[in-house]
Amino acid sequence: MRPISRSALRPHVCQTCRHGIGAGRRRFASQSGSPDLYDVVCVGGGPAGLGLMAALRASPITSKLRVALIETQDLTKAQAWNLEPTQYSNRVSSLTPSSVAFLRQIGAYDHLDVDRVQDYQDMQVWDGQTGSSISFDWSMETSPFEDPRTVATMTENANLVRALLRRIAQSGDENLSLFSNSTVASIETGSDLKPEGPDLSAWPVLSIKPTGPSESTPKRIAARLLVGADGINSPVRSFADISTHGWDYGRHGIVATLALGDLDIPPFPASKRTAYQRFLPALGGPIALLPLPNNHATLVWSTTPENAAYLKSLSTPSFLAMVNAAFRLEMTDLSYMMGMSSTSDISHQDELTWRTQHTALPSQVPPPATAVQEGTVASFPLRFRHAAQYVSPRVALVGDAAHVIHPLAGQGLNLGLADVASLSKTIQYAVSHGMDVGDLITLERYSSERYLPNAKIGGACDLLHKMYTVPGEGPVAWARSLGLGVVDRLPFVKSFLMKNAEGY
Amino acid sequence: MSVLGRRGALELRALTTNSKTSPTAIRSFSVLNRPAPNYPGHVPLTTIERGALAIGSALGSLVNPRRADLIAALGEATATPFFIYRLRDAMLSDPTGRRILRDRPRITSETLKMTHLRTLPENSVGRTYAKWLDREGVSPDTRDNVQYIDNEECAYVMQRYRECHDFYHAVTGLPIFVEGELALKALEFLNTLLPMTGLSLFAFVRMKPAEKERFLSLHLPWAIRSGLRSNELINVYWEEVLEKDVDELRAELNIERPPDLRDIRKMIRQQQKREKEQREQASG
Amino acid sequence: MASMRGRTLARALRSNKPITPMTSSFKPATKINQPLQSRTHTSVSADELSHFSGLASSWWDPMGPSRILHLMNPLRHEFIASCLSEGTTEANPNPTSANLHYLDIGCGGGIFAESLARTIPSTPQAQAPTPTRAASMTAVDPSTDLINMAREHARMDPAVHAHLQDGRFRYLNTTLEDVLESKIGPVGSSEAQYDVVSLFEVLEHIDPKTSSPLGFLSNCLRALKPGGWLVGSTISRTFPSWILNQVIAEAPWPIGVVPRGTHEWSKFVNPPEVKGWLQEGLMRAADTATVRGGAEQVKGMQWKCVGAIYIPGFGWKMVPGTEDYGNYFWAVRKGV
After folding, report:
1. If you placed Cys at C168, which of A229, A311, A333, C136 could pair as Cys (CB 3.0 to 4.6 Å)?
2. Measuring CA to CA, how many Å separate A458 from each of A382, A406, A461, A497, C257?
3. Distance from CA of B22 to the nearest CA of A (A)
4. How close, in Å, is residue A187 to chain C by CA atoms?
5. Please, are residues B86 and B6 in contact by the beta-carbon 8 Å criterion?
């Protein structure tokens, strides 16, 4: 065959076997020659990966480490991200106070555009089936003279990513390599560079290629510690041969950016903002409305794929009517409206108006959603995954690579940041005690600190999901109603729960 | 949806602090501070009053099954907390049911002109209804207004049930005397789950032995068969199906036509008469 | 508990024969045959050597029998840092300069030596990354197998490997006596004089009945510059320690954390014993051919002692006042 056709085939081949690591850790290096050595190599430039980089760069103990980050997306674009002040991205996360404390500690919070960030002090959670509710209101716990405590802080992921990138940029480029627009073509173990060189046979060696067709030879780097922040299908996890267990929930999360109307009763104090979540057992999951600045909010609605497809197919007024109905009407009405033909004479809005007259509204109903920001309605599948372990020699997994949980408590990103905080602390400890940061004895500090809390939170979200998707009345409905009712009535239990929720 | 489930949940509703959030919850009050009515004609009752009303009306209607007012009161007193909501939800789950709840039509001699009904084609629902009213000598205007159900929408559902009751008679052809009424109540009980319809079956004890036998062998099996199979009768927009063929409607609703009680009675009477005549001839 | 590197453990791992207490051990000034070198003075017995060597393959396995030592290692750094904060061999210590020379005696597979070598900056002029401020590390052990294994393992870290190449990190298959005799000093020095001499989990392997810890410690002090620190860790011989180390720690699974027969009760040493030997040792170390060291040698001495507790699931913790319960760190600073 002529050489020209071979080279024409190459990009295609590379797409399909790009990682080439399905069979687990490779034992032999295919290439000789000494790779570039790094102390920490992070695959994945999401909030977790960038958070780790920023944390390592921020600490005087670890700032001298030679670090690298590999990201397929364009990090320059991410750092230049900008939106109109009235526009909000639909990828929004809720940061717990401990996540915010971590971001402050590593100096990243100062780079966040705070005009695009919204704290909330109250959280209203109730069961659409039984009406039982729990209110997480810090303003009850604090005296009128101090500011009400924050339950969580809403921020767009893009804002957070930009802040982390700015923080990393601020630390200079000494000992730092950001491989933007790059993919990991392969991960292999290194070789023993006898007789003069070191023995790299236990070190992961990565081949990095720019995205898109390129003829340049991949750059090879060896990692003392390879961090997988590369998401649910983590190539790093496959390389380390770490298995993962879990399931798909058979649910989709619908997200959208909404503009809100005014509350009938203005909040007190005026700055107080509330997050709302109503469990809709008949529709397969909860709906949540989380505040953004300028009377905007982000919607997260977990429901069946059929309902998600239906909601996405609706016209904007109908979609808004469904969102408002989901916080107000009874399960019977919602189930009916979820199947209404779009060609019907009666619109979703008509149904909502009519049914609202005959439904006793709970006191915690959120302000009405009045507009959907164009192009923000999207959905994603909900899954549960937990890696069998977070570490193996010279490998650590953080964030979604280690665990994916149900988003009903908005804890996914927080768990990822908690991982990063713990791992960066572990690396600091290792460096200051002469430990090899890739050694298992080092990494087990991280894994023992994070495995159980993550399993606990993930399990709790899973349990909540399962309890609140049993439709109709029955022992499960009474139990959860009794549970929420008891929790709401016992201030000590509640305050304990609130403090726990704040912690992760 | 399980029958027991809703009751349990309602008890729990009272347990949780925010009973105000539940549209179906009723705040307790004493006779000294009776709240304002929720709709014209509404009489808010305490739980004790409601219980007393249920027992009193049950006993009264057993003594005198013709006391329609007592049966109505029994129906209202026993419809809450669960059953009337179930019936309303059955309506809310159905497009026609929802339209009925939205329009809230009333069936009276004003809204349904007998003169018009009599002009409808033979075997149409409207004509059958008119014929049944004529045969039984009853009027749609004799229905009492609902007064003891707290939720105004549920009160309407009860009213609607009550006003549609004669249509059920008409399409099944069951007469208003005790035997026919019981057969229809048995069907309604399985169809609507309203307790009063079930409780009415206690009137069985008042029937003559021959009627009992007939009821058990003919009409009860029919009621069970049709009641379990049929669609929710409450979701029939009677005002809109007046011109429909009654057989067609029965087929849509999955209801068989029961043996005609008046015909049976007539046959029996004729037979008795013939036997009597034969005896008289023989003796004469 | 941490003295798992004892030869009995090695034996326990290799055979299932019942373990009998060792009777012979360190014998300073005893002439024995060594596989590699012939020495006239050594504190190491042939028994010790063969048993330690048996441990070689599992030495660096983080889940292996040396796990508890790996876990203790960070505490050694912290203890040394706390000593150095009280003073060093320098008149005006600079906390950022890496200029302290270390000698690790009985380095074994190099758990401590390698970890300290990792803190040596890549260039001598660079800032010290840790408060231990290491400029060089000389690690000695008489076991050829262990030294070879330690060298092999050090090659697996390019940073440590670089130090091995440039000589700032050395593994020597030799004894303390030979270091003193042959005047093996830190890089660029012809005097066997170090800023910090470490002696981790060594003392409890000296049988006081048959050998002299005093002589051994005197030699250690001889290798120390004035103002330098001799640091070590060992296990005390007390009733609570017996309960913890013999009864609980060696209890059957799941209570016990170390294999049965790991510890040799009779060889444990108490802090006052160590302190006494060191006082005497300081005087002996000052002996010269003409002058004998006197009480003035002890005057400038600084003595530190702190207990360390291992809690399964939580790891090691330094807890002052628990010296009598088992493991403890001790340190002595030679008078300036």
Report:
1. C136
2. 13, 7, 5, 16, 32
3. 5
4. 18
5. yes
Q: Are there at least 3 beta-carbon pairs closer than 8 Å between B and C?
A: no
Quick one: closest CA in A to B154, which residue?
A358
Cβ contacts of residue B176 below 8 Å, gap of 6+? Answer: B136, B138, B169
Burial A285-304, CB ≥16 within 10 A → b, else e: bbbbbbbbbeebbbbbbbbb
Angle between helices A97-105 and A491-503 (to 10 degrees): 40
> How large a percentage of chain A has pLDDT more than 90?
64
Is B275 among the annotated ligand-binding positions? no
* Bridge partner list, C319: C307
Same domain, A279 and A303: yes
CATH of the domain at A302: 3.30.9.10
**In the prediction, which pLDDT does C14 show?**
36
Compute CA distances C293 → C164, C222, C282, C286, C299, whole Å. 37, 12, 8, 5, 12
Helix axes C144-154 and C111-118, enclosed angle (nearest 10): 30
Mean pLDDT for all residues in chain C: 80
Q: Report which DSSP code applies to C247.
A: I
CATH of the domain at A389: 3.50.50.60
Q: Does B9 touch chain A (CB under 8 A)?
A: yes
Q: Is residue A93 part of a domain?
A: no
Note whether B92 contacts A: Cβ–Cβ < 8 A.
Answer: yes
Per-residue pLDDT band for B193 (boundaries 50, 70, 90) equals confident
d(CA B111, CA B128): 17
Reported pTM: 0.83
Q: What is the ipTM of this complex?
A: 0.83
Number of domains into which chain C is organized: 1
Residue A250, CA atoms < 13 Å, CB-side half-sphere: 4
Is residue A288 within 8 A of residue A275, CB to CB? The reply is yes
Which residues are CB-contacts of A273 (< 8 A; sequence separation ≥ 6)?
A118, A119, A120, A121, A122, A267, A291
Tell me, yes or no, whether A242 and A136 share the same domain.
no
Interface test with chain B among A124, A127, A129, A132, by most B beta carbons within 10 Å:
A132
Model confidence pLDDT, tens digit, residues C7-54: 333 333 333 333 333 333 333 333 333 333 434 445 655 665 666 666
CA dihedral B238, B242, B246, B251 (to 10 degrees): -50
Distance CA A430, CA A62 (A): 10
- Give the tokens for residue C4: 């798992």
C76 in a known ligand binding site: yes
Task: Write the single-letter amino acid at A499.
Answer: K
Q: State which residues form the domain around C169.
A: 3-333
Q: Which two tokens stand for residue B166?
A: 């004669």
d(CA A222, CA A242): 20
Check whether residue A368 and residue A390 sit in a common domain. no
**Does residue B81 have a cis bond before it (omega within 30 degrees)?**
yes
Structure-derived torsion over alpha carbons of residues A172, A173, A176, A180, reported in degrees to the nearest 10: 110
SS (H, E, C) A355-369: HHHCCCCCCCCCCCE
Whether residues A284 and A193 share a domain: the answer is no
Dihedral pair phi/psi, residue A458, rounded to 5°: -60, -40
Same domain, A261 and A358: yes
A81: containing domain? 14-87+159-246+384-461
Q: Model confidence over B75-107: pLDDT tens digits?
A: 888 887 788 899 999 999 999 999 999 999 998
Same domain for A456 and A479?
no
Confirm or deny that C5 is annotated as ligand binding: no
Q: A474, B2: Cβ pair inside 8 Å?
A: yes
Residue A237, C-beta contacts closer than 8 angstroms, at least 6 positions apart = A228, A230, A244, A387, A397, A401, A402
- In whole angstroms, what is the distance from residue A274 CA to residue A265 CA? 13
Q: What percent of chain B has pLDDT over 70?
A: 90
Annotated binding-site residue? B181: yes
